[in-house]
Amino acid sequence: MARVAVSLLLLPLAAAADVSSVAQKTADYAVNKYEAAMTDTLAELVQFETVAREDLPLEKNPEFSGFKRTLCGKAKALGLECEDHGYVIIVAMGQGEEKVGIVTHGDVQPANPAKWKKSPFELDRTSEPGKLIARGSEDDKGPIATALYAMKAIKDKGVPMKRRVELIVYMAEESDWEPLKVFLKDYDMPAYNITIDAQYPVVTAEKGWSEVRATFAGSVVADKNRPYLRDFHGGYFRSQVPDEAHASIANPTPELEKAIRARAATHPRVKFEFAEKDGALAITARGVATHSSEPEHGINAIAFLADVLGDYDWPANAAGATVRYINDLIGTGILAEQFGDIAYRDDFMGPMTGALTMVKADDKGLTSYLNLRRPTGKTAELLDKQIHSTIDRWQKETGIQMADVDVSLGEPYRADDAPHVEPLLEVFRHFTGIEDAGPVAIGGSTNAKLLPNAVSFGPSMPDKAYTGHSEHEFITVDQLRLNLKMYTAMMIEIANL
């Protein structure tokens, strides 16, 4: 992810760029009047476990129904319009013929309750003073609450607005974009669109979300008396660098265990646990979870567990073949340098990154998921050819055959010439004092790709690790306050361009 260096969140404004006086005054009013209410609303929104379920469609899921009902109820109580279109909620204000779209989402990724001090679906305001901890606090229920009270403050003050502002809350951003595509076909598209699902200052480029799924089949080994991998799995979902992975070794010898422990000791950032279980040696690796668009902020438990198993020639059942594949073609790096010729970088968007996100059993065998974030600079056709060529060569060299391989290559997105980039930068510069702030690129993938003239504006500062998709998601009190100021000013400035 391309990043810029910034200093403290709240700097003196004397030398900062200017926004209109009405934007400044309304932003100050929003914080003074509604900061506490905004935080309370965030607490109401995060209590709903709006996680997509394969066994229960959204329209029958009470968590989604409750979230939508609460959101619309809150919006109407604040004097805003609210319409429920199934997968899309529209909260709106103003009557202009043209529109500004503020794009966000109400669904969240799964969370493992065992890894949180309190329930991930309860706003934890006390465990770590200054932090508001919950699934969705940063991605993306915090921004929703912020946008609601920015709109309320503008309405209170009767600020003249040339354009209608519509907050577009999509309910399946983390799982399925097709319903949004269907909705947008008949939607009167805003002239200016701003997603609040990324980072500051202004995101004008997003890498393409891509994936290589490699499946190995077979549980039988030729010699059941020698050591072999009975099991290898890890990860939680497909856009998270995993913080936990597991392996089970049948027939371990003292020499093999000693060698594995010695190699594990070379990775002090990873915690390895060894135990005897059902006559096998069970190994657990614990790393640090993070959003897979920013693998540099995590410690990939799957990759490092495969690495400590890499000095032994494992029989090529599904687990053994998977470990061999990971060590040969992926490794513990994050730039896909080992995967043949696919590594490259773009001068603005930065390098392609790669992160193993899951290894799990399915009906085909044992499948590993390599999440790639690709910038501009190589065509999908070339990358697809290079990926398959590398896999074919590896299969010939090792004599190990994959049961299945599936490659998905999403397109990078750029909006370098969006007309509201500079006004958004002015808002950011004004409220942070960072006068040299400019457009940035991210590894993440937002719904900006589906709308015209769409760029991203927050909620995360560019010098901070994004906590969404991690098992310690939070937004700071200071950041939520700053976002309320900037979102209030942003709506006023862009609606009056």
Description:
The chain has 497 residues and is α+β, with helices and mostly antiparallel strands. It folds into 2 domains: 21-207 and 413-495, Aminopeptidase, CATH 3.40.630; 208-409, Alpha-Beta Plaits (2-Layer Sandwich), CATH 3.30.70. The protein has 10 helices and 25 strands. It has helices at 21-46, 62-77, 141-157, 178-185, 254-264, 301-308, 318-329, 380-398, 421-432, 477-495, and strands at residues 81-84, 88-93, 99-105, 131-133, 164-170, 192-195, 198-199, 202-206, 208-216, 228-234, 240-241, 244-250, 271-277, 280-286, 290-291, 345-346, 350-351, 353-361, 366-374, 404-409, 413-414, 439-442, 454-456, 459-460, 474-476. The strands form 8 sheets. The protein has a 6-stranded mixed sheet, with helices on one face. Strands 18-19-9-20 form a 4-stranded antiparallel sheet. Strands 10-12-14-13 form a 4-stranded antiparallel sheet. The longest helix has 26 residues, at 21-46. The two termini are 30 Å apart. Mean pLDDT is 94; it is low at 1-16.
Entry keywords:
single chain, 497 residues, alpha+beta, Aminopeptidase, Alpha-Beta Plaits, six-stranded mixed β-sheet, four-stranded antiparallel β-sheet
List the helices and strands and how they pair.
Elements: H1 21-46, H2 62-77, E1 81-84, E2 88-93, E3 99-105, E4 131-133, H3 141-157, E5 164-170, H4 178-185, E6 192-195, E7 198-199, E8 202-206, E9 208-216, E10 228-234, E11 240-241, E12 244-250, H5 254-264, E13 271-277, E14 280-286, E15 290-291, H6 301-308, H7 318-329, E16 345-346, E17 350-351, E18 353-361, E19 366-374, H8 380-398, E20 404-409, E21 413-414, H9 421-432, E22 439-442, E23 454-456, E24 459-460, E25 474-476, H10 477-495
Helix pairs in contact: 1-3, 1-10, 3-10, 5-6, 9-10
